[in-house]
Amino acid sequence: MAQRHPDSDTPVAGEVLAPYLREQATEFLRALRQHRESGADEAAEPAHALRAAARRISGALHTFRPLLDADWSDRLRTELAWLSGTLAREHAYAARLDRLIGALHRLSPSAGPRSSVPSQNGGLTVGAAKAGALIERQLTLARTRAHSTALQALGSSRFHAVADGAAVLASEVPLRKDAGGHPLAPFAADVEARLDEAVTALPLVRAGHPYNAEALLHGLAADAAPESQDAPWHQVRLLLRLHRYAQEATGARPDRDVRLISAGQSLDRHRDAAEAATAAASAARTPRIAPATAYALGVLHADQRHEVEASRFTFQAAWRRAPSPDHAVPTP
């Protein structure tokens, strides 16, 4: 018979957390098998599933750490973070390249709809092709290196140890002896409180005003280095994901809270645009590039910072919306 906390109807570790971790560990092993059996052109989907399962296991081990064998869970969580990060880099570089090349085509006067970030004196048209070639060269090289690193990781003894840990977890969850009947709600509530605190610290009032694309292009924003403002937003994104995973682990449905879905999507776009802007700025620092190329990269950087501001605006609007009645949590 399933255990219940004597004073509450809320789920407890032995009833909900253990099956959840076993399920995610099984999903990890299934995705690993599919990844090994797939060809190079078919590996993206199982790699995504592998990363998703690793993130969920890691999130649960972090949130509910006091209920688990601490040394074991800390070791596995560290290794899962390493694996997830290593596997994510190749996809991230590819997505960044697609985003930046697509933005260049959108920004160029000769290619489709114009962005709200202005291009002047035809300089963008002159430099866009060379800027695109430079970005493609740099990010393709980075993607190739990330692919090699991922392949090496998947063949390493370190990875085999992670897979062994997942196999153990799929059959036996190392709960502490006194943890089986412990309710999960206080731990999930703690994550939610940390998320609320982090959101409260964001400049949501500023994000609630229309952004100034002209100022971004010409460097007239209040902060000369807008990237320095990104870290708190990235932290909120991670806490929001941790909150979602904690809710999943307690048995909440992951498909009803439109507020959290919208907030998470806007923060994903924020992260993508911020990293793309950094890549454009890095390309612009390449020695001995032509002024027209540097100008095109500057416009591209401004365009992506504009997307950052737009994502913040979208986030604050989503976050201030009333929560869905079901208060369920979205999957990524």
From TrEMBL:
InterPro entries: CHAD_dom, CHAD_dom_sf
SMART domains listed in its UniProt record: CHAD
Superkingdom of the organism of origin: Bacteria
Pfam families in the cross-refs: CHAD
Domain (CHAD): residue spans on this chain: 10-324
Listed name of the protein: CHAD domain-containing protein
Biological source species: Streptomyces boluensis
Phylogenetic lineage: Bacteria, Bacillati, Actinomycetota, Actinomycetes, Kitasatosporales
